[in-house]
Structures are given as C-alpha cells and as structure tokens.
Amino acid sequence: MTLKQLARLLFAGTAIPLIASGADVHGIGARAQPLSPVLTYVPFQGNPTWRDSTLRSADQTGPVLAQAEEPEERRRRRDRENRDEDRSDRRERREERQRDHQQQQEQERQQRQEERRRERARESQEQQRKQQDDDRRREQEREQRERQRLQERQEQQRTQEREQRRQEQDRRRQERQREERQEQDNERRREQFDRRLERQRDQEREQREEQRRQEQERGQRQRQQELQQRTLERQQEQRRLEQQQEQERQQRTQERQERQQRLEQEQLREQERRLRDQERQRSRQQERLERQLEQQRDEERQELRERERERPDITPPDNRSGPGQRGGFAPGFDNRRDLRLDELRALRRERVEQGGRRTIIEERDRVIVREGDRYIIRHDETDRFRRAYGDAQVRRERRGQNDVTIVRRPNGVEIVTIRDPDGNLLRRVRREPDGRQIVLFENAVPGRRGRTIFEEAIVLPPPQITIPRERYIVEVEEASQEDLYEAFTAPPVERIERTYTLDQVRQSPALRDRVRRVDVDTVTFDFGSWELSEEQARALTGVGQALRRAIERNPSEVFLIEGHTDAVGSDIDNLTLSDRRAETVATLLTEMFGVPAENLTTQGYGEQYLKINTQEAERQNRRVTIRRITPLLRNEARQ
After folding, report:
1. Which of 65, 69, 73 lies closest to 47 in space, CA to CA?
2. Cα-Cα-Cα-Cα dihedral of 559, 562, 563, 565, to 10°?
3. Three-class DSSP category at 435
C-alpha cells in the first residue's frame, strides 16, 4: 500500500482498521505496531482521534498515525493534495478511455476498409467471370452461325442440282408430250372435218323442218292471243265491278266503325271522368288518413323524445351527426316502420284503360303504368318532403285546372309544386323568406294533354366519352371528397344542344348518359327491402357533404337519385322496390346531412340497368346512383 492510497483511506475514515492491524505502508521505514483490538473513535470538531484503553505509551509503541493530531494547516494541505491527486487520476482514466475508444474506432475503420477492399475484389472477380462467360457465349454463337451458314450453302447447292435435274426431265417430257399432241391434233382435225360435213347436212334438214313448225306455231299463237285478249277484257270488267262493290261495303263498314268508336270514346271519357272523380275522392280520403297517421307518428315521436329526455344519456355523442340527426342516428330508425313488400302486394289495385292497351296499378303512394312490356312508376314527392321536414306545414290549392302543393319548412322556406289534372309534374319553385324565388325545373310541355308518359322518351345516339372511366363513373368507396364534389359539379361529357323536361330526362337513358354518374356502392339493400341500417346510413357521409357543398355553390342544382334492383322477382315488385330505395336514400341525405329535399328527385328503374350482368340474386345490383341533371333541365341555372 502506497502513501497516496493510505492518505485516501484516512480521508475516507476507513484506514484505521488497516493501521490497527499493522498493515504495511510503503514509503514508511518501520512497520506500525499492532494495536489493541479494542479501538474507540472520538469525534470532535477538529481532527478525529482514536483512543485505546490498553494502548501503551508513545515511547514504547513507536509512531502511531491514528493517534497523532495534525495541525490545521497540514490537514488542509493534505486535503488539497488528495483532491489534486483525485482529479489527476480521473483525468488519466478519462484519457485512457479516450485512447481506448480511438483505438477501437481505428480498428473498426480498418475492418470496414478491409471489408470494402474484399467487396471490390469480389465484384471485380465477378465482373471478370461475367466478361469471360459473355466472351465464351459470343464465341459459341459465332461458331454456331458459321455452321448454319455453311449448312445453308450446302443445302442451296444440293437444291440447285436437284432443280437442274428436274428441269432437264421436264424438258424431255414436254418434248414427248408435244409430239404426241401434234399427232392427236392431226387426228382430231380429220375427225372434225368429217363431223362438220355431217352437221351441215343435218342443220339444213333441221332448218327446213323448223321453218315449217314455226309457221304452224305462229298461226296458233295469233289465235290464242285473240282468245286471251277477249278473256282479259271480260275479267277486267268483272274486277272493276267487284272493286266498286267492295269500296261501297268498306265505306259503309268504316262509317259504322267510326260511329261505334265515337260512342266508345264518349263512354271511355265518361268512365275516365268518373274514375278521376273517384280517384280524387280516394286521394282526399287517403290524404286525410295519411295526415292522421302522420299526426299519430308525430305524437309518438314527441313521446319518444320526452322519454329520451327523461332517460339519462349514457351514449357518447357521434361527431358525424348531421343536421336533423339525434344522437348521431338518422331519425326514424327507431319509431318509423315502412310497409313490407307482401303488404304492398295486398294493397295494389289494377284497372284497364284505352281498351286494354294500358294497365294502371295503384299502390298506397305510387302508380305503376304498363303498356305492353313497358313499365314506369310515378309518385308524389310531397310525402318525402313531409317526412324529411318533420315540422313542415303542407297545404294544397287549386289554381285553374292545376293542383298546387306548398310545403312550408320551419325556417320559412316554401317549396311550391304544380301539377296538371293528369298528375304530371309541371314546375317546382323554392321561395325564400325574403321573397326571392328559385326555379328548380320547368316540366310543362305545350300539347302534352293526352300524350302517354312513354312518349316522353328521347332517342339519341350514345355519347362519346373522352374522359377516363373512373371520372365518368365514380365509385363512392374509392373516391375522395374532391372526386365526389367534382362529379356533382362537372358539366356534361357532350355539348347539350337544347333543354329537356324532367320526364324526358327520367325516360331517356341516352340523355342521362351525357352526365356523369356516381355509384353509391357503399350502400346496398337486403333482398326485398328498401330499408337501411344505421351503419349503412352513416356510409352516406361523403355523398351528403359533397351534395350540400354543391348546392351551397348553386342553390338551383337538381340531382336525380336512381334506384335499382337485381333480376330476381317480378317487374312490378322490382320497380316499386327500386323507387322506394331511391326515396330512402334521398330522405336520409336530407335528415342526416342537411341536403335540401327539393333539390333531389328520385326514380326507380327496377332491373333494367344491372351493374353485374346476372339473373341470380346479386347484392351489388340492389343499389342507388346519383346524377347531376341540372344542365339537362329547364330551370334557373339555364336562364
């Protein structure tokens, strides 16, 4: 043990046992005498003092470091020396660690350099091997081409030799054939000369006989022509008399038919007037019943709201809830029950018009018209407005021959819908509280009275699509919010030469194909149902936000929501299912996302336009699509 180590131990208070046990201290000439095993440490304000009760006197034991009291200056100097030595030791250890770290980094750098050198050597060897392989391959290919050229030259030589031998054989054969033909020609000429002489003699005989026969036939034809002429004259006279009699009979028959048709038309008009009166009475009764049912539903909703207010709310709010939505769910999921398909079948009533050419099928709130194999469904969208705006006031007026329906929303906005006596939609206007009017569409056509709705179809060639398909047919599941907004504000894919009525747009597929289509593939329907679950209703968030944004940009926008079904089921069932599916989506867009109901119109097409071409049940075909039809209509946006 060195003096430096001993001083450190003394300073720390742990060197007393070593001194007491007689440890060898290097640098001190004599070994300290062993002390008594019993030591007593007496602390005081100065230096520490160790005391032994059995310790002998200093003259007998020699120098004992633990019992000597040092002066104050020496103690402080010793403390400074100890601190200096500690700092120097720490500096030496730090420098030693730095040297070790530098040596380690140098070794790692040398290892990396060695690895890079080896890698470059391997790459060089690999390139040399590849170069050698390429040289060998090119040499083999060159040798192979040389062999092929040699074989081709040999084959050409053999072919030329064979061709020469064949030509020589052909030449000899042709000479023999030429000689044989000359002999045959000579023989043939002799035979022809003999036959020609014989034919000349026969022809002379036949000509003489033919002349006699022609003279006889000419006389017979003249006599037959005279007989035929007299017979034709008699037949023409008879036909002229018969035609006169037939014309007289047809005139009499036509007069009787015209009188009968006039009578039938008068009877049909009388029947239609009676039926219209009955329909108006039934519609008034139905409206009264519907108002009563609606009042009952309102009362039930009010009771449910009161119960919900009384019940503590433990459900966290949904941040995606839109205007008119309670607690994040679409209104009506809990307290509105739609009719089922079998109930609709039981409520249908049929009647025949126009002598059986047209069949009218009436449901509770829809009318299906059938002519031949063509079907179309019509409905009054006032019921959708009433459901979408639960507190709206609805009143009906009679202006001349037209029916006017006014729906007043709670915010003071009025939706005015005008229909003709046949129920055809003529005009829809939104009247703001400040008196400003926005014409959504004009559907009136001069001379429309008496025309069937099937005559509204416009025949046009298919449009020329010049934009990418994913921009022409937008899939909601794959589209972004900006893609949907672009589809709901984009112009038609072709220039529109004129404007059309709403019925013409609904009944003309080639006309609708001139605007972009949004397939709402995030929402599909169960088989035989037009209802949606809460989860599927929330999947309309992107569509609802894009529609509301487009309508805020242009309040006169009109969007057509088309309903579709799969190919399973009857045409009538599929038509009413598709129309109700479109109405369901339109109602949810208004209730959940605040899309104005008057800017939406719906139409069902049944199974006419399948997305998946199959006759089996297919969920992807039970869908809805949305189109911006504003550029096609007569409305304020076009004025």
Report:
1. 69
2. -160
3. coil
Question: Is residue 270 a part of any domain in this protein?
Answer: no
Domain boundary pick from 16, 39, 69: 69
Q: What is the mean pLDDT of the chain?
A: 80
The predicted structure's pLDDT at residue 459 = 85
Cα(191)–Cα(366) distance, integer angstroms: 98
> Under DSSP, is residue 438 helix (H, G, I), strand (E, B) or coil?
strand
Q: Would residue 539 count as lying in a domain? A: yes
> What is the 3-state composition of the chain as percent helix, strand, coil, each rounded to the nearest 5?
55, 15, 30
The boundaries of the domain holding residue 516 are: 315-638
Widest distance between CA atoms in the chain: 196
Dihedral sign (CA 172, 174, 180, 186): negative
Residue 178 tokens, joined: 């030429």
- 50-63 pLDDT tens trace: 444 444 444 444 44
Q: pLDDT tens digits for 501-549?
A: 888 899 899 999 999 999 998 888 888 888 988 888 899 999 999 999 9
User: Distance (Å, rounded) from C-alpha 265 to C-alpha 354?
Assistant: 9
Rg (CA), the chain: 56
Residue 458's contacts (CB-CB under 8 Å, 6 or more residues apart) are 500, 504, 507, 508, 510, 511
Question: What is the Cα–Cα distance from 572 to 460, expressed in whole angstroms?
Answer: 27
Question: What secondary structure does DSSP assign to 73-110, as a single string?
Answer: HHHHHHHHHHHHHHHHHHHHHHHHHHHHHHHHHHHHHH
Q: How far apart are CA 482 and CA 487, in angstroms?
A: 9
Of 390, 423, 426, the closest CA to residue 407 belongs to 390
Question: What would the DSSP string read from start to end of 336-375?
Answer: --PPPHHHHHHH-EEEEEGGGTEEEEE-SSEEEEEETTEE
Tokens of 428: 């829809």
| Contacts (Cβ under 8 Å, ≥6 apart) of 334 | 304
With H, G, I as helix, E, B as strand and everything else as coil, classify residue 139: helix
* Complete edge-to-edge strand list for the sheet that includes strand 559-563: 473-475, 517-519, 624-628, 559-563, 600-604
For 475, phi then psi, to 5°, come to -90, 125
SS3 (DSSP) at 563:
strand
Instruction: Among 29, 46, 69, give the residue marking a domain's end.
Output: 69
Please name every residue paired with 430 in a beta bridge, in sequence order, or none if there are none: 415, 438
The verdict on residue 511 lying in a domain is: yes
Q: In which residue are the tokens 């605007």 written?
A: 515
**What pLDDT score was predicted for residue 316?**
33
Q: How many domains does the chain have?
A: 2
Contact present, 562 and 538 (Cβ < 8 Å): no
Residue 557 in contact with residue 335, Cβ under 8 Å? no
| The Cα angle at residue 391 between residues 363 and 419, in degrees rounded to 5 | 45
The 3-state DSSP class for residue 162 equals: helix
What DSSP designation does 404 have? E
* pLDDT band for position 10 (cuts 50, 70, 90): low
Whether the per-residue pLDDT at 627 is higher than 90: the answer is: yes
Q: Examine residue 58 and state whether it is found in any structural domain, yes or no.
A: yes
Neighbours of 494 (CB within 10 A): 16
Question: What are the structure tokens assigned to 65, written together?
Answer: 């470091």
CATH number of the domain residue 527 falls in? 3.30.1330.60
Predicted confidence at residue 363, as pLDDT, reads 82
